[in-house]
Amino acid sequence: MSATPNAIDAITAPVSSPGEKFFPKFEVTPELTAKAQELVALYPEGKEQSAVLPIIHHVQEEFGYVSPEAMPWIAEMCKSTPIHVAGIVTFYPGIHRKCPGKFHFRVCRTIACALSGGEELLPYICSKMGVDPAEMTDEEPMVVSPDGLWSLEAVECLANCGFGPNVMVNDTLYSQVTRGKIDEIMAACKKELAAERKEAAAAKKEAAAARKEAKAAAAAAEEAPAPAPAPEPETKKPAAKKATTKKAAPKKK
Amino acid sequence: MSDITYKPGKEPHPRETRRIFRNIDREGYDPSIKCFMKDGGYETLKKCLKMEPADITNEVKKSGLRGRGGAGFPTGVKWTFIPKGNTKPVYLVCNCDESEPGTFKDRFIVHQDPHQLIEGMIIACYAVQAHYAVIYMREEFPEAARIMQNALKEAEAKNFLGKNIQGSGFDLQIVLHRGAGAYICGEETGLINSIEGVRPYPRIKPPFFPAAIGLYGCPTIVNNVESLCQVRQVMLMGGEAYAAEGAQRSPGTRIIGVSGDVKRPGVYEIISGSITYGELLYDICGGPRIGRKFKAIIPGGASAKVMRCDEILKDRNPDGTVREMTIFDVPMDLDSIAKFGSMSGSGGVIVMDDTRSMPKVLNNLNRFFAWESCGQCSPCREGNPWMYKLSTRICEGKGSPEDVDLLKSVADNICGRTVCAFGEACSWPTQAFTTKFREEFLALTKPINALKAHSAETAEARKFLTRED
Q1: Where exactly are the structural domains of chain B?
Q2: Strands B132-137 and B91-96
């Protein structure tokens, strides 16, 4: 008897997605709590529940989607219950229960965009992303590519009807999109990813170098126990800066 | 006005009158407060803060300004619905959940001229004595949310928001609240529920409108973005001057968004009633694409009833004689089109030419409404997917002639049987398309299809009822 899941368990069951590797796993940090409290403070006293959407938006921005673990925390923050938060999460189409890809494409398919060829873009984008268009159903309009880089969602009206077809990639709206423009957008996304990876690699290298230096310094400190030589350069630096600003000031006059 | 230059290719049409859209696509204009104040921004507010709140409401009432969200309710009258002797706090909510397909006017205001909206909101808040206001912005405007958040900060730094605004003793806080992609949040009570943090099911309205019992059970005024910008315009021009311009029953300017099969789709600001649909589509929008003809027009957002371009409309002249005309002769104000069974709504004109299949257009709309129904009332929740199923079946050539009547009958039975206006919004397109383009629907159907099972379950159930030979 206990093995059969009820409807609520089914709603809050985790849905795995290849997009997850591009987002951090949900974790409650002091910064996150502080941000949530800041959002709650925007609303009148005793109306903490109003902050449920803003907090969900923040969680989605940070972690890509609203995971089942996040719901009780959100409920705690806005003095509500987890089931209430689940009710909100399942209502809105703009809230994801499944992690989207690194680059989330939203293609409008409502009347005005459909008249200008928005629906014909969907199969093309699917083939470019390497996803099966049949996976996209009316119940679950979002598909994620196997590498987690791309996701595609067919949405209703993006409110730019005069200039269709409209496609939104993450937070940017592209209008009058053609197949050629899709290629361009995807190439730009790949470039962005490469640049980000390069930056991350550089940051990693720097961190590694810093660690090495720290190790060397520690080793040196062990060899010759000199009392704290570190603070000296720190005090020197601001003094040097001040000197330069002083020099610059008369020039302006 | 002549000193304003617009970005190349974005110049307004000579027949346009740019008031609300004055700074849209203007050369060298950015959404910062500096730019807005250089242009005379917040001067109207300073003037208004010296007036009595009731005088502002009277001025707006005198102007005859009607809401631009779709229903066209007089804005000033709405403000007076706050119960007399009210002791609860009053709230003002700006409805920026622009989600009616075909409407895309507010997008430009919140992206390019956010301070115009903020000034209008402060004036409105002062008039109704609200000290807390919310801008409900749709989730699909992330860029606008950032611009607006920044604009609110700028306004607060200059003491147009916060405590004791410009030394008038009036306090106001404006909060930006983002939706999450639900069409129903454009309905004012659904929107209020969404701000309260519960599922945005619309509330039962009569006898208590949000102006009496709204957000957190307190009097709440919900106004559209364009309406609030028009409030600023009214106070700038004076109520009487505003009322003197445009159509008698819907004065001022209107922003019309044209989409679909025209040469130059886009947004145009015109004096209400100054031009007809024909002039809009042929003169301003450049007519149909080469080699095509106009076939149908949806005059006021997806939920308005469709109009046939070759339909003869009969109107009565003031002397009692009957005048025959087409949709192209109908003036563009809020009421004229209502005489012919449609509505001007939020000003989103969707045009279809003779290459379009009307059943397919309806099928697209039905999918939209089936997807966006909130699920509170069963006629709408069950009826919309049913209508979508039926129109899909017809489009796929699997429908029977009876299905067309069934489709209309489902729509007839949703209309008027729901809590909010979504019931009407979803059934009007189906009612209009199936009556006005009936022959197109029938052409796709086959009588034999009535005997066929449409799903595996029906086939199974019918197994013993039909003879194989």
Answers
A1: 33-243, 253-353, 358-451
A2: parallel
